[in-house]
Amino acid sequence: IALTPMMLGRFAARFPDEIAVYHSGMTDIQRLQTWWSAKDGVKKIFIGTRSAVALPIQDLGLIIVDEEHDSSYKQEERFRYHGRDLAVMRASIERIPIVLGSATPSIESRENAEKQKYHFFRLNQRATKAILPDIQLIDLKTESANEHTWMTAPLQKALDDTLQRGEQAMLFLNRRGFSPFMLCRDCGHVPTCPNCEISLTYHKRPLSLVCHYCELKEENLRACQKCQSEKLQPIGIGTERIEDNLKKLYPNITVGRLDRDIASSRQRMAALLSQFEAGKIDVLVGTQMLAKGHDFKKLTLVGVLLADMSLNLPDFRAAERSFQLLTQVAGRAGRHDLKGQVFIQTYRPNDPAIQNALRQDAENFYLQERTFRASADYPPFSRMILLRLQGRKLPEVTTSTRRLAKQLRELYQNFPHVKILGPAKASMEKLQGKYRWQILLKSSKFESMRRALENELPFLESFLPSSVMLSLDCEPLGSF
Q1: Cβ-based neighbours of 269, under 8 Å, separated by 6 or more
Q2: Is the pTM of this model over 0.85?
């Protein structure tokens, strides 16, 4: 949704009066109008998010999935589906071509190309024919970063030079808010969300502690909830804190910030991007929203303040996502006539994901990651089904999950190719007031695993109490 206005503007300039847009940020009436324009064949080109692939477009001739690797194509709630895979299926049913575009293809799509299920076309130069930026790796173990801006001396000098030349810079940190948590210096208490059992993120504007999962907000920050001490201190860094400190360090420049807090308003975000494109903002600080699809002629410097954050997630795709994110955000620099520079600050300079991002080498990363996935029997060499149970009473959830795991082991006892992992807590055991436990099924023979589960699912569900909800997710993404 965030990128839709920019893409819409570019297509409308080329194909006036032929464009319609569709996404969940529109009103019901706007979406209904687009639905009918598809049904009646009034418009010829439809631009939208994952839900747009289900529009009743007449005489559909081509589907393009931009940034096909992006995890936002996966619908994680209610009806769980992957927009890219749904697009591939629709193209197959309608017997039309589909283009999956990405500078950093997903391992699954790249493997499909290797097996010649997909045609693989390499673009060996940028669309603008600009040369790739120079990328410099900075080891944070030997080069200390400024505690206020989290910039090392080489990055700060590069920023000074960039601003002196009248060019623009982007600073990337994949953590929003002012600080990840607030600490009481007297008793050590850290405020947590009662619904999700994670620390509340400190925001300065407006002054509050916020849960980024259930949107709970605490605005009384004068004293510690546990000991009533007023010695509260924000710990760690977020995009809001970097923005504030940059404004103090460079009082004569304009600093902007792009993260989910800003993007909650489409008008506000569109205005920010327009200002940056017009050169009215000198430095843009933000999260992964900076990495996707932006094309600014005067942007010559990109600084990744801490490249390790996504590497440490409990997810077998963590390396893939880190490589994709770093490669994509580095690609924002020097896309036109001006030469680009990228600085990647990290505590793990020898990590394969970071080393391949440094060389912009998607092919080598794929080969290395493919070897790891094959040895560990992870997708694309197996397929998975996640069964998650959740409810408001922990004993009911744990008992139901253990009972379900036992029944699944009986169901699959004659299926040696099916591995059953769990039961186990979800990566976040409590979310939005509900406890979550899960079981993971993994097999190289997906159809036989799926059919057996589908046939027995009504029987399996009959043993669950009404207070415990079961959800299934084929090919789950993210931290389980």
Answers
A1: 2, 258, 262, 263
A2: yes
